[in-house]
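Hi Y.,

Following your request, here is the sequence exactly as I used it, all 208 residues.
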Amino acid sequence: LLLLLWPITVCIKIDNLRENKTIKFLLELYIFKRTKVFRVKKGINVDNKIDGQRLSTFFCKPEASGKSKGSRIFQFLRKYQWPTCYFLRTLRWDELDFFLRLGTGDPAWTAIITGFLRSFAGLLSFYLSRYLIFIAQKPRLLIYPSFFKQEFSFMFSIEFNFNLLKVLLFLAAMFIVKLRERWFRYVRSSHSGLNENSHGKFERNGGC
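Below is the corresponding structure, written out as tokens. Let me know if you'd prefer a different format.
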């Protein structure tokens, strides 16, 4: 039981702030915020230019399943929205920082895009501060324009605390959602006269 309640600190950092624009990924796990028990560090070489074709392929191009990677991710988040939000609200957040320097090569478009992103970042920061529990500092989401060159530099850093008991509760909640989905599929297949809201379909004679 004590193992389930041991506090675990997770630190995740992702950035491409080096000259060669290699993306660095760092994951560290600590017990009692002092003892490091796990560490992963990787570097990925990518193009620094903004490639709209890659984004459209990720979000729009269907795979063998008939759905794109982006749509599958959104579908998963929508399906498990309740357990995911509950799990995030049970965590204790020490840090959530995001820095972005964006340049499209066109000053006008850069100003428009960064202005929109700043508005969205301000709104997102407000809701994160309201619904999540931050211990050390509030979330910082900073967007900066690069008017005279094409650039995409970012830094993302989070640090939060949890224990294994919360993970087990999260997995149990996901199992309940999955079980509920299968139950409704069984009910709809067994009663073809029911619609998606489990209500009877009205006939011309007024029957249900």
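Residues 201-208 have pLDDT under 50 and may be disordered.

Thanks again,
Q.
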